[in-house]
């Protein structure tokens, strides 16, 4: 690497915040074959020196109200309860209560399990229930985890995924939350759908967090959904 390239890399990493996408014109393995395929990479602060290959994504404009999934998933139930409390929220949001799923339906692609690792106490949400809320022109706030995202996309449902980064406070309860958050951040990188992140600096109390979530849902509804369609045959 030349000195110029080193200087560029040093300046780039210094300025980079969050996740940045780099575009490489030609895959090195395809040189000499006449290929012009683009290869996208992501560079994050968590993996400063590690380039992770990305497939191309395509824009999808969704007119219907998109359901909402929260991460870390441990926060989902409490957030949904609070978002539905004010009278005016009932005009914009609703939810689908998880229900027991019989063994005969647990492999049904139209049923989304809350925790597939515990089939003996399987609770899930049916696609029809989500569609019923969407038909009311409301956002369906879901307790589902990130593993359900790809299944929803395969059914033509494009959820809004909101990732809430916890504030850095030194106590045992939050340490557990940080561990869960870090694990789910890794899952976020594998989603075939672009997600939205709420940074700790955007809120200082629960009311501000709820307001930030409402604003994020409103903005994401108007925005284009970027989907990795190649993974959804």
From TrEMBL:
Taxonomic classification: Eukaryota, Metazoa, Chordata, Craniata, Vertebrata
Domain of life: Eukaryota
Region forming the signal peptide: none
Name recorded for this polypeptide: Caspase recruitment domain-containing protein 11
Gene Ontology terms for molecular function: CARD domain binding
Cellular component terms (Gene Ontology): cytoplasm
Organism of this sequence: Liparis tanakae (Tanaka's snailfish)
Domain Guanylate kinase-like, first and last residues per copy: 20-218
Matching InterPro entries: Guanylate_kin-like_dom, P-loop_NTPase
């Amino acid at each position: 690497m030349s000195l110029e390239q080193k200087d560029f890399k040093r300046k780039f990493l210094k300025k980079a915040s969050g996740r940045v996408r780099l575009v490489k014109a030609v895959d090195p393995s395809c040189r000499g074959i006449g290929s012009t395929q683009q290869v996208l990479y992501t560079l994050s602060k968590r993996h400063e020196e590690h380039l992770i290959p990305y497939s191309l994504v395509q824009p999808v404009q969704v007119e219907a109200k998109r359901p909402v999934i929260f991460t870390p998933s441990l926060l989902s139930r409490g957030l949904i309860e609070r978002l539905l409390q004010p009278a005016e929220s009932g005009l914009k949001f609703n939810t689908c209560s998880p229900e027991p799923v019989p063994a005969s339906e647990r492999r049904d692609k139209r049923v989304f399990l809350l925790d597939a690792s515990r089939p003996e106490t399987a609770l899930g949400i049916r696609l029809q229930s989500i569609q019923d809320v969407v038909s009311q022109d409301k956002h369906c706030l879901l307790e589902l985890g990130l593993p359900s995202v790809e299944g929803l996309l395969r059914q033509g449902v494009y959820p809004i995924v909101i990732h809430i980064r916890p504030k850095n406070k030194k106590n045992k309860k939050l340490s557990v939350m940080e561990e869960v958050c870090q694990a789910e951040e890794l899952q976020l990188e594998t989603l075939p759908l672009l997600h939205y992140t709420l940074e700790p600096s955007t809120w200082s109390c629960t009311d501000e967090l709820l307001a930030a979530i409402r604003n994020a849902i409103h903005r994401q509804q108007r925005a284009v959904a970027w989907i990795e369609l190649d993974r959804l045959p």
